[in-house]
C-alpha cells in the first residue's frame, strides 16, 4: 500500500510540474506576442512622424532629392552625383571632372536642405533668404562642408557631405521677449539654477531654431527661446552638458502645440517650478537650454 501511495504522489508531482511548465510556456508566448504587437504599433506611429528614424529628419529638396538633419550627430547631410562628360580617354581626368561636378551638386542639395530647416513654428530658412545678410551668411556655411563618403564606378561619381548644424544656428539672431512673461513670484529663489533641460522625448517634436513654451490653456509663458537639441536615452537627471552648467532645472514637457509640432506645452507643476527658479536669470538670454528628443 505504501509503495502504491508513493508512486501516486510522485505522479501527482510530475503532473503538477508539467502543468506548471505548460502554463509558463503559454504565458511566455503571450508576453512575446504582446511585445511584438506593441512594437509594431510603435513603429507604425513613428512612421507618421518626421522622426521616423530616431533623431533624423528628412527634408525633400526642390530638385526632388532628400537631405537629412541628424540631431544625434548634429549635422546636415546631402549627396551629390555627377557623370563624366569628357570625351577624353584619360580616366584620371574623367574622375577628377566628375568629382568636381559631384561636389557642386552636393553643395546645391545641401543648400536646399538648409532652406528647409525650421526657424520657428511657421517659417523655414527659405522664408528668410530675401534678407541679403542672412542669404550671404547661410551660403557662407557651405564653406564648412566635410566630405564623409565618395564613390566612383568609372562613369558616375557620388559625394556625401555634411555641415555642422551649429553653423546654421549662428546665422539667426534671437528675437526679443524670450523671458518668462508672468510677474516675478513672491517667494525668493531657493537656489540658483544654471540652465534648463526639457524632456520632449516621445512627443514627435520637430526641432526648430526658435521655440515658444505655452501653458495648458494656450497662453504663452516664454519664448522665443534658442535651444539646442540632444538625442538621448539617458534619464533626464543624468544628462550633463557644459552649456547648462552643474545645476540645471529639469522638467518634462507635456505636449507640443501649434503648427508643425515645434512649440511646447508644460503643465501647472512644471510652470510653477519655472517661475520660481528661472525668473530674472540669464538662462534664456544666454541660450542655456537643452531639449531632449528621441
Give the SSE order as H and E letters.
HEEEHHEEHEEEEEEEHE
What count of helical segments does DSSP give?
5
Helical/strand content category = alpha/beta
The average pLDDT value, as a whole number, equals 79
Detail the poorly predicted runs: 1-10, 33-52
Task: Give the biggest beta sheet.
Answer: 5 strands, antiparallel
Widest sheet: strand ordering = 1-2-3-5-4
Helix content: 25-40%
Tell me the number of strands.
Answer: 13
Query: Radius of gyration from the CA trace?
Result: 28 Å
Q: Approximately what portion of the residues adopt beta-strand conformation? A: 15-25%
Distance between the termini: 69 Å
Write the layout of secondary structure elements.
Elements lengths: L1 H45 L9 E5 L5 E5 L4 E9 L7 H25 L16 H9 L5 E7 L3 E9 H5 L26 E4 L11 E4 L5 E6 L2 E4 L17 E4 L2 E3 L5 E3 L2 H11 L10 E5 L1
Parallel strand pairs: 6-10, 6-13, 7-12, 9-13
Antiparallel strand pairs: 1-2, 2-3, 3-5, 4-5, 7-8, 11-12
Question: What does the model show?
Answer:
The protein is of the alpha/beta class. The protein has helices at residues 2-46, 91-115, 132-140, 165-169, 268-278; strands spanning 56-60, 66-70, 75-83, 146-152, 156-164, 196-199, 211-214, 220-225, 228-231, 249-252, 255-257, 263-265, 289-293. It has five helices and 13 strands. A hairpin with a 5-residue loop joins strand 1 (56-60) and strand 2 (66-70). Mean pLDDT is 79; it is low at 1-10 and 33-52.
Amino acid at each position: 500500500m505504501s509503495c502504491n501511495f508513493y508512486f501516486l504522489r510522485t505522479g501527482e508531482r510530475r503532473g503538477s510540474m508539467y502543468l506548471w511548465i505548460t502554463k509558463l510556456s503559454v504565458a511566455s508566448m503571450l508576453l512575446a506576442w504582446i511585445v511584438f504587437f506593441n512594437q509594431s504599433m510603435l513603429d507604425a506611429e513613428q512612421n507618421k512622424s518626421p522622426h521616423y528614424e530616431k533623431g533624423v529628419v528628412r527634408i525633400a529638396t526642390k530638385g526632388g532629392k532628400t537631405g537629412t538633419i541628424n540631431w544625434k550627430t548634429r549635422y546636415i547631410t546631402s549627396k551629390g552625383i555627377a557623370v563624366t562628360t569628357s570625351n577624353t580617354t584619360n580616366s584620371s581626368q574623367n574622375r577628377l571632372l566628375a568629382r568636381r561636378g559631384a561636389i557642386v551638386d552636393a553643395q546645391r542639395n545641401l543648400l536646399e536642405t538648409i532652406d528647409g530647416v525650421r526657424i520657428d513654428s511657421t517659417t523655414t530658412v527659405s522664408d528668410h533668404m530675401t534678407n541679403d545678410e542672412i542669404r550671404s551668411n547661410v551660403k557662407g556655411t557651405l564653406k564648412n562642408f566635410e566630405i564623409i563618403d565618395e564613390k566612383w564606378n568609372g562613369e558616375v561619381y557620388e559625394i556625401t557631405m555634411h555641415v555642422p548644424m551649429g553653423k546654421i544656428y549662428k546665422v539667426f539672431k534671437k528675437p526679443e521677449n524670450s523671458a518668462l512673461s508672468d510677474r516675478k513670484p513672491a517667494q525668493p529663489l531657493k537656489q540658483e539654477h544654471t540652465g534648463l533641460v526639457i524632456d520632449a522625448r516621445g512627443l514627435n517634436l520637430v526641432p526648430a531654431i526658435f521655440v515658444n513654451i505655452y501653458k495648458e490653456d494656450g497662453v504663452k509663458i516664454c519664448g522665443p527661446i534658442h535651444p539646442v537639441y540632444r538625442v538621448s536615452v539617458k534619464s533626464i537627471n543624468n544628462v550633463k552638458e557644459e552649456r547648462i552648467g552643474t545645476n540645471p532645472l529639469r522638467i518634462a514637457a507635456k505636449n507640443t502645440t501649434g503648427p508643425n509640432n515645434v512649440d511646447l506645452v508644460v503643465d501647472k507643476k512644471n510652470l510653477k517650478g519655472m517661475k520660481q527658479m528661472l525668473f530674472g536669470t540669464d538662462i534664456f538670454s544666454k541660450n542655456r537650454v537643452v531639449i531632449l528628443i528621441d
